[in-house]
Predict the 3D structure of the following.
Amino acid sequence: MNNTIPADRVRASPDPERSVIGLFDRLARPLLRALDPETAHLLVVKALRFAPQRRPAADDSRLMVRAFGLNFPNPVGMAAGFDKHGEVPDALLGLGFGFVEVGTVTPLPQAGNPRPRLFRLEPDQAVINRYGFNSEGAAAVLARLAARADRGGIVGINIGANRDSSDRAADYIQLIESVAPVASYVTVNVSSPNTPGLRELQRASALDDLLARIVELRDQLAPRSGPTPVLVKIAPDLSLGDLDDLVGVARARGIDGMIVGNTTVRRPASLRDRATAKEAGGLSGRPLYPLSTRMLAETYVRVEGAFALVGTGGIDTGAAALGKIRAGADLIQLYSALVFRGLALVAEIKAALIAALERGEAEKLSDLVGVDAAAMTAEPWPG
Ligand SMILES: Cc1cc2nc3c(=O)[nH]c(=O)nc-3n(C[C@H](O)[C@H](O)[C@H](O)COP(=O)(O)O)c2cc1C
């Protein structure tokens, strides 16, 4: 029974997992930030691959979340794009994430866009990427995940179409069929800005056709592979009219959840690194927070509890994580802030969520989901 541990004790806990994180954040991260961003990322993944594997420390039971039929030990997930090829899900779970989303995985291997394709905007604590789905392909990822399947933990797989595919819908169908046996859930990524034309699949008629086939397949596979919840990941750049249609289709087809959302092609006027801001690609990190949180609230009021939401975009503090939950997120994911804030952020967020409960903001996390959504949708649109 650990649900009476005060938040400050959670924060100060001297367990070995935390000291590895402290060492990494203090020593390795400053060096990594001096490197080209993609090289730094590849090095971190390699380090995690060869680091001693540990089972995740048990979370405070008040952090548990039930969503899409799964029990998450805590609501803080690693967003797609960090572990694109399924190399380090267990290392990430061991670092305290409540779940890990591997991918985006494409059916066939593909190289993605030429380098450089990842840029840091240091003064903005932001990142621009135009990877374009570099993927080792489904077979390689599947083999890795099958080899760790008995270790448990929630590992979702984010799927996308090959750039040169002549039938993108068929790519998603084929991927779901192959990954369902090893995926805790599948995310249908129709929102990457870096594969030309991909985001057209978010249009209501295209999405309706795609989801009809996907949901039928999900239901056919369930007796053999067990339930595979299907999530759709959307762009923060949709108009509210498009969002109306998209949520209508998603509800009618009976998907299990939605991730709001991917990177933005917009460049907020507040960006200070104007030169790097000119790079093509999707922007993530702190400047994405206002837009993605507003879109989350807009989605929440339209979904009306029909399915669960994952809030993603610009989370870099405990308060920001809490803000996502209050805007409508059952679960949250992060990526870019790890570059600027380090791995200790995961524990910091978990401690902040517990502290909010101890302050009496609510009895349990689920009571906070969406409490600010309606009010947020009445505010001026974030600039
Ligand atoms: C370098 C990088 C690569 C990404 N690759 C993917 C990807 O392959 N698939 C995907 O759905 N999202 C991808 N994303 C988007 C993230 O999953 C997330 O939605 C977005 O970055 C917003 O969260 P953040 O501000 O915490 O980074 C990527 C993001 C970054 C920074």
Observations:
- The longest strand covers residues 99-105.
- The two ends are 46 Å apart (CA to CA).
